[in-house]
Design a protein that fits this description.
three-stranded antiparallel sheet, seven-stranded antiparallel sheet, alpha+beta, 3 helices
């Protein structure tokens, strides 16, 4: 009986330690002067100030977004960063990525999916895609190419998250996109 209890205890300790291995040694990097969208599952930073993003209030953003920031030019949204939480009953990062990809509008072209390390998790997915703006609802003029990136995974409570960054061609330099991705912190 003691041997069984000892074996069960050792097995539980190994499983607990194995779970700790999922935490990333990668740390989030937030450039000076940037704002941060903070939610219970994930945070992401963005350039603010003149020509930068402005955080939306709960009344301004979609009811499906836990946080959002937009960048406008001439009264049109040219880039948007959104955070969705617990949007699906995913039990794995792969399932969270599939559900996040399902949210990409019809006609978009998925460019690829790959593993990505985000602060405090070693296992998340990056989905790159493109689409053409319809020009509706204050978005870029009809026909404008838009590039999107979704970072999807599970937070420390096992809840799905998706950070989505959409930007019209020329609206978001690749160096800023990289900084936004490097700022993502999973809680």
């Amino acid at each position: 009986m003691r041997t069984r209890l000892l074996t069960a205890g050792l097995l539980a300790a190994v499983v607990a330690l194995a779970g700790c291995g999922k935490r990333s040694t990668h740390t989030a990097s937030v450039p000076e002067g940037w704002g941060t969208l903070k939610t219970r599952g994930v945070s992401v930073s963005y350039p603010q100030g003149p020509g930068g993003y402005v955080e939306q209030s709960p009344a301004e953003r979609s009811k499906y977004n836990a946080a959002a920031a937009v960048r406008e030019e001439s009264g049109r949204t040219v880039s948007m960063i959104t955070v969705q939480l617990d949007f699906t009953q995913a039990r794995s990062v792969e399932q969270a990525a599939i559900a996040a990809e399902a949210g990409i509008r019809m006609g978009a072209k998925v460019q690829g999916e790959k593993d990505v390390k985000l602060a405090d998790t070693d296992h998340a997915k990056r989905i790159d895609f493109t689409f053409t703006s319809t020009g509706e609802d204050g978005n870029p003029p009809k026909g404008t190419p838009v590039k999107g990136v979704i970072l999807a995974g599970l937070d420390s409570n096992g809840q799905a998250f998706a950070v989505r960054i959409d930007a019209a061609r020329g609206a978001l330099p690749s160096t800023d996109l990289k900084k936004i991705i490097d700022s993502v912190q999973v809680q």
